[in-house]
Amino acid sequence: MKFAPVAGGYFLGDYDGLDTRGTSFLPFFVKTNSNTTNRTDVVAQP
User: Fold this and answer.
1) Around Cβ 20, how many Cβ atoms within 10 Å?
2) Could you tell me if 10 and 45 are in contact, meaning their C-beta atoms sit under 8 angstroms apart?
3) According to the model, what pLDDT value does residue 22 have?
4) 8 A C-beta contact, residue 28 and residue 19
């Protein structure tokens, strides 16, 4: 929690979505990590 971005409080992220790859959907979401210079990661699962 201490490494989460601060936006009026610790921000764990609530971004998710769908992209397309050809005829398939690619779900993705953003999560907090422990890197203090880049505090979030985008995770996708084909």
Assistant:
1) 8
2) no
3) 92
4) yes
The 3-state DSSP class for residue 40 equals strand
Please state the domain count of the chain.
1
Q: Give the position of tokens 């084909």.
A: 46
- Model confidence pLDDT, tens digit, residues 1-46: 677 777 777 666 667 889 998 999 999 988 888 888 888 888 887 7
Contacts of 32 by beta carbon, 8 Å cutoff, 6+ apart: 3, 4, 5, 11, 12, 13, 39, 40
pTM exceeds cut of 0.70 = no
Pair of tokens at residue 42: 């985008």
Tokens coding 26? 């690619």
Enumerate helices (H) and strands (E) in the chain, giving the number of each. Answer: 0, 3
